[in-house]
Amino acid sequence: MHFDIITVVPELLDSPLTHSILRRAQEKDLLTVQVHDLRPYGLGKHNSTDDYQFGGGAGMVMRCEPLAALIDELKAKRTYDEIIYLTPDGERYTQARANRLSMSENLLLICGHYKGIDERIREEYVTLEISIGDYVLSGGELAAAIVVDSIGRLLPGVIGDETSALTDTFQDDLLAPPVYTRPAEWRGREVPEVLRSGNTPAIEEWRQEQAEERTRLRRPDLLGDD
Ligand code: ADE
């Protein structure tokens, strides 16, 4: 699977994409990510990529021409399953969306800055708008890193234990149950007996109960009966 990411601050994406699971996914050629600096496509001698907004008001808007030039160049090389704009007024990002997007071959992510991008770019090119939550970031880069991470780890072969992604929180609209490792007792707190019993059906039943209980207490909205 391939990601292209358009940004005016490519440095912001360096670290999240080059460590841990995403690094391994790229080393194994299961995932490729190319970050494209919009700045060279900027206009005039200062390579301007943003301008004042029509109608007045605080905050700059990213201009159409540099974005269109870079998007057209990328579209000439690849067919995208989705062209995604990261924006706080987009659809709320969920595990279900990550699962669906993980079936894609090519995704293009556009990171906005300042007040965002000119509306006409959204109309002309963007097929999906994603918000990672109800708060405003200073740019779309961290949101893009979250989208790449959440999708990258779902690709077959990326996570060592193939079943691991299936038991994540949210995969059944349930939070994950508690987990423990050694030692069996720490500061007087014991690991629940059932987890040490070796009784697989009992362990499964306990985990299911714990997941349901945790979800009822913390996220009743996921159960649809809040
Ligand atoms: N850009 C700024 N805020 C954002 C958010 N909450 N989600 C996605 N992109 C953003």
Order of helices and strands: EHHEEEHEHEHEHEEHH
Q: Quick check: average pLDDT? A: 95
| Overall CATH class of the largest domain | Alpha Beta
CATH architecture of the largest domain: 3-Layer(aba) Sandwich
Radius of gyration: 22 Å
State the end-to-end distance: 38 Å
Percent helix range: 25-40%
Largest sheet: 5 strands, parallel
Bound molecules: adenine
Strand tally: 9
Taken together, the total number of domains comes to 2
- Helices and strands: which structural class? alpha/beta
Query: Which descriptor suits the 3D outline?
Result: elongated
Provide an overview of this structure.
The protein starts with a strand and ends with a helix. The chain has a five-stranded parallel β-sheet with strand order 2-1-6-5-7. 33% of the residues lie in helices and 19% in strands. The protein is an alpha/beta fold and 226 residues long. It is elongated, with a radius of gyration of 22 Å. The protein folds into two domains: 2-152, Alpha/beta knot, CATH 3.40.1280.10; 169-223, tRNA(m1g37)methyltransferase, domain 2 (Trp Operon Repressor, Chain A, Orthogonal Bundle). It binds adenine. Residues 86-88, 112, 131-133, 135-137, 140, 143 line the site of adenine.
How is this structure best summarized?
With 226 residues, this protein is α/β, with parallel strands linked by helices. 33% of the residues lie in helices and 19% in strands.
